[in-house]
Design brief:
mainly alpha; Rna Polymerase Sigma Factor, Chain: A; Arc Repressor Mutant, subunit A; about 180 residues; elongated; 8 helices; 2 domains; about 0% strand
Amino acid sequence: MQRQAEKQLLMAIRAGERAACEKLVKDHYQAVYRFLFHLTGDVGAADDLTQETFAAAWAGMADFKGRGRITGWLHRIAYGKFVDAQRKKQRHGNLKRQLKYESARRPDETNPLGRLMTEERSGVIYQALRELSYEDHVIIVLHYFQDMSYREMAAVLDQPTGTVKWKTSRALKELKKILIKEYEP
């Protein structure tokens, strides 16, 4: 009987019935959230990833064939969102450490070559930041220099957290392009 009820729910969702969409969220939100909370250990991250999971589910609803249960499908999407977030966190963490290191590092006053190299690296990074659009520059500074979370940045910029995450990713790509161009022969 449960499989039949899920199939009817899917048909109603695909037909655009708002009540069916609300029922899907009501029935599965807590399970997906708990799963992500156990993976992340972070209430904010679990909340963000749960919202991303349901957004991805809506976008991919036509692809769900109904062979498995909805809960399994949602958990697969949630796990994929978690893995993607971990990858981004690792990439951003590496850049964050580099930017903090460069901005906090003081040149060795006794070693002129070391001082010159440090100043040159810092100069390249700051020059690249100046080449970014105003919006991208602000995003990088808030996240990597001010150490703000996406949620904090969203409050500062008065934008949704998901938008801020996307803009941060875009800004990093632009910064990378500028830095790669700087070092091309």
